[in-house]
Fold this sequence. Notes:
Shape: extended
CATH architecture of the largest domain: 2-Layer Sandwich
Strand content: 15-25%
Low-confidence stretches: none
Mean pLDDT: 85
Largest sheet: 3 strands, antiparallel
Organism: Larimichthys crocea
Number of helices: 5
Order of helices and strands: EEHEEHEEEHHH
Distance between the termini: 64 Å
CATH superfamily of the largest domain: L1 transposable element, C-terminal domain
Structural class: alpha+beta
Number of strands: 7
Helix content: 25-40%
Radius of gyration: 21 Å
Amino acid sequence: MPDVNIQIERAHRSLTAKPKNPNAxxxxxxxxxxxxxxxxxxxxxxxxxxxxxYKTEPIFFDHDYSPELQKKRAQVRDVIKQLKQKNISAxxxxxxxxxxxxxxGEKTYSTxxxxxxxxQEFEIQARVxxxxxxxxxxxxxxxxAARERRGKNPAVLPATDVRxxxxxxx
Length: 170
């Protein structure tokens, strides 16, 4: 892409350990571009080419999502696959939202938990982990998930205790 001014803010290897096997695939590179639109253009170009080679070896391009977000997106992709098998148009919107497009219009769900009633109408099985269910329940009460600070282990209540607290059970 000769017309794109690529300005890299920083680049480094991923934090995984160096492979001991010399035939193993090399570690990933993480690149932060100065301009998001450059990153977007590079990803679109790489994906449209289907295969990008460096010397004779294929290289792959993708977003750098956290493991937690990758897990949520995988759950949404699984639901989208099932919807497409039933000829229902759907896609995943960042970060891990589900958009369903039907003849009645388009509806976006912020979590799979919020989409469960609609998915049950379509007879779609959705995998929602306990943490996702809990975050959804707590958000109804105006709570939000506190992010863990590095080096600190906050006390975590079991799901049964949290439910008991909100339901008034002892």
